[in-house]
Known about the structure:
This protein has 344 residues and is of the alpha+beta class. It has helices at residues 4-42, 51-127, 129-156, 175-178, 191-204, 217-220, 242-263, 296-302, 317-328; strands at 162-164, 170-174, 227-235, 279-283, 304-311. It starts with a helix and ends in a 16-residue tail after the last helix.
Amino acid sequence: MRNLRPSSREEDEEESVFVPMTDMTVSFLFIVMILLAFFAVRFSDKDTVPRSVHDQLRQQYEITVVEKNKLELERNKLTAELSQAKSEIKGLKLKIEELLEKVQDLEVKISKLEKKIIDLIQQLRRRDPIEAYLVAAQAQRAEILGQIEKALKLEFGENVKVEISPENDALRFKGEGLFKNDSRILAPNKRKIIEKLAELISNAVPCYTVNNKNLNYASCNPEGIVIEAIQIEGHTDEIGDDAYNLDLSTSRANNAFLAMISTQPNLLSYKNIRGQPVMSVAGYGEMRPIANNETEVGRAENRRIDLRLIMYTPRNRQQVDQIQQQIKEGLRLVTEKNETKGSP
């Protein structure tokens, strides 16, 4: 019986330990239930997304991804184009540099040629003043015509058909470039060409004519070059009656002249050494062809308007000396009223 007593005590001790453990477990479970209840109360259907919305958002996302890919491809394409453009620009810059070097070389050559021309003129003047004067006059005429031709082509491009004659004494406009076939009236879209031509002439000839401008002739015309006449000439091909062609060419020249002075009336104030207006008009019909009238190409060349620049030609050394002396002194050239026989 004694041996049984201790066993009973041990069992009591074990039971006393078990009871607190059970209480703790129950307490823990109770706390868990409270937490579950708390989260259950906090849970809301608003935190969920309806299936339709979910699908719509997913679709939009997929579209966005597609658009992003497209934009990425476009960006890559533009990047490649930009790279190519930069490469082309680099190449063009190199070409520009090469052209600029060529331009500089040409400018040096032009400068040398101009100096050579001056030297030749001086040599000619020492040998023969009349010949030197004529050479200088021809060079000045070619320069004036060249400047006008360049300015017209620069402004009107393909719309103007103009060239300098082989003799460097006239600008040639194809007749059908200014007038319609068999018409005496300037084509409306070509009138601006004639008006620009008048402006260019007005700016180019003052130093070589008698006029009311306050000019320093000794500075702008040291060679004493004088323009005798600026002639507007009308020409036709040989098709048709001679008298009709003559009348047609004259009418065209007159209409071109009237268009010029309507926009630049001061052209009539420029005079030669005889006090006559340098502007003049002539119609030659078919009498002065520059190409074969047997072909259509040749006839087209012959249908034209010429702007001819006629320079004063001195008869003797005395006239050359007188003109150059007047220019150097900055005086007006003599007019017809005070001209004496045998002098300029």
